[in-house]
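Run log // design_07
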């Protein structure tokens, strides 16, 4: 009885002192999704700039090379695969490794049929929620199917990890050009007075997700962001 009374008294004192259990930490995936400043369901390179870690891993996570990170690709950011530090090669192909889930029969290869089944499933989900599909610019990984023969170097009608990795590396210049185009579009849209720089007012209005990092990004401290300051720094 004394023990129960002591425990009750202790709880009462803690409550009176305003001591509460710490709220659960926000899930990493939820934090990543907060970067989606225009709420279109994907994160482009400019939005990713608000997170140094995500910006550095953007290419690795962008498995389909469309310059945007979708929900399934962002799972790689949550899991944090690959080594850290100077050994950057481990991150480079994290997006390719995320495609392993398409290997439904577990034979270590991805067939055309497995890709078609995955795309059909995505289309079905999009049909069930057309508004969301419209917001996210729904894609069903058409690149892999359209480029299947080009990726399948040994002509065995199966895509291996090595083949996908080689194809991804070959596509890098094209992806980077597309990412540059998207970056330029976002920057120009935010540059309201057309002076080639972004003021605090312009960032607050057009890129609110990076507004709190304005001073950090403003490397030369001149009160404006130029393209080279806003563009994410990526390791090679």
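design_07 sequence
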């Amino acid at each position: 009885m004394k023990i129960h009374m002591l425990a009750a008294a202790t709880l009462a004192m803690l409550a009176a002192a305003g001591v509460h259990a710490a709220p659960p930490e926000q899930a990493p995936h939820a934090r990543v999704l907060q970067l989606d400043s225009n709420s279109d369901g994907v994160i482009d390179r400019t939005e990713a700039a608000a997170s140094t870690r995500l910006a550095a891993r953007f290419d690795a996570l962008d498995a389909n090379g469309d310059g945007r990170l979708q929900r399934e690709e962002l799972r790689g950011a949550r899991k944090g695969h690959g080594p850290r530090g100077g050994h950057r090669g481990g991150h480079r192909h994290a997006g390719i490794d995320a495609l392993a889930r398409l290997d439904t029969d577990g034979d270590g290869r991805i067939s055309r049929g497995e890709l078609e089944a995955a795309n059909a499933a995505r289309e079905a989900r999009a049909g069930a929620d057309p508004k969301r599909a419209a917001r996210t610019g729904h894609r069903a990984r058409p690149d892999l199917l359209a480029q299947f023969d080009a990726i399948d170097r040994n002509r065995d009608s199966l895509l291996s990890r090595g083949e996908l990795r080689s194809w991804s590396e070959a596509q890098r210049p094209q992806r980077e050009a597309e990412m540059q185009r998207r970056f330029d579009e976002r920057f120009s849209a935010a540059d309201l007075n057309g002076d080639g720089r972004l003021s605090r007012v312009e960032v607050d209005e057009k890129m609110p997700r990076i507004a709190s990092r304005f001073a950090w990004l403003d490397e030369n401290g001149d009160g404006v962001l130029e393209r080279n300051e806003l563009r994410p720094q990526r390791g090679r």
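The chain is about 55% helix and 5% strand.
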